[in-house]
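cache lookup: miss for this entity combination. No prior model stored, computing from scratch. Input as submitted by user K.M.:
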Amino acid sequence: MMNAMAGLGRWGMDNVREFGKAGLLLYRVLFCIPHLRKGFPLLVQQIYAEGVLSLLIIVVSSLFIGMVLALQGYHTLAKFGASQELGPLVALSVVRELGPVVTAILFAGRAGSALAAEIGLMKATEQLSSMEMMAVDPLRRVIAPRFWGGFISMPLLTVIFNATAIYGAYLVGVKWLGLDAGVFWSNMQSSVVFRADIVNGIYKSVVFGMAVTWISVAQGYFAVPTSAGIASATTKSVVYSSLVILGLDFILTAMMIGDW
Amino acid sequence: MLPQRLIETLVGLFLLFAIVSLTVLAFKVSGLTSLFPSDSYTISAAFDDIGGLKVRSPVKIGGVQIGEVTGVSLDPVTFKAVVSMRIESGVKDISDDSSASILTAGLLGDNYVAIAPMYSNTYLKNGDQLQFTHSAMVLEKLIGQFIYKMGGGDDAGQSKGEKNANP
């Protein structure tokens, strides 16, 4: 009994300690003084590695998600004789929920895991320590560009996801199922509000971008420097990111619907 | 490792793609117009009951949209709902004895404000208020009145109904 209690306490303390270390890491990344001339090329490289290379999976999956939503929504709406409301259905569900959440989960799988594995391997092969030996701050050289790269890429990817998903819905709804294009767009325009729907979706994606890159970077940076440790850090970064995204999404939605 | 120049170009394209997407979302999907507001003027009208009228509901003359509702507030003295509307400046000769009514698009559709133009030679200016208004038809009230009339009494209502039913 006492052993169980002690085990629970140790588990709790370990978790809090890890969380605190990750928080310190985030603090140091956020408030380290950036070196503009050297830091900018590194940032661009990371936006390329995390944003541009994720573009393919984002575009393809958003196109198919939009097409499937349109197909499913059309047949359900047609039962109520409301198939002209397909545009609002697809646009609102994509812009408010699916866009930010699916992009963030795909991003966690595509870029977050790569971040954790890369930083973890750098730690295991003592590249981070040798940088310190050469008086290069690994935080500024390795961690900060990766964090900011993901932070910047995520909203951009979300915006692209939204646009292509709605285009996919247009392809299925108008080109295939024969809905009128004017009805499709004008109903969509009359029910989607820029500030309340699209901008709030982008706010969500900014929060998700921060959460995913923070988790991945911290998992990599504090990984146990063995091959098994890197494997578990990679897995954890994806699992934790996905859980945090879904939890945060609920909280953010509740805040947005309750007008903050 | 790709050369830095190529990476920068690809990142630039990525940013451009995102900006184009955002523009599409703003103008094609959400129909954003207030970023560059077209020339317009504001008029208002007081209604007894506005039903389900909301901000951004359309304002129409003869079924053609000429503006939108920009605000709904309650007059604390008369307890009337004051609806302010933004009218495109291209439509400037609305005479001041025109009447505004709140109608419903279809049986269960959204409410909109319909302005019926009249013939006075003085026209509405920015900040003017329409004098003649008709409240929204609230479907529940109509059904309530209908049911009241149907079962309202064994005397007048029903005999009249029977007379109509069997001519």
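stored under new cache key. The CA atoms of residues 27 and 36 of chain B lie 11 Å apart.
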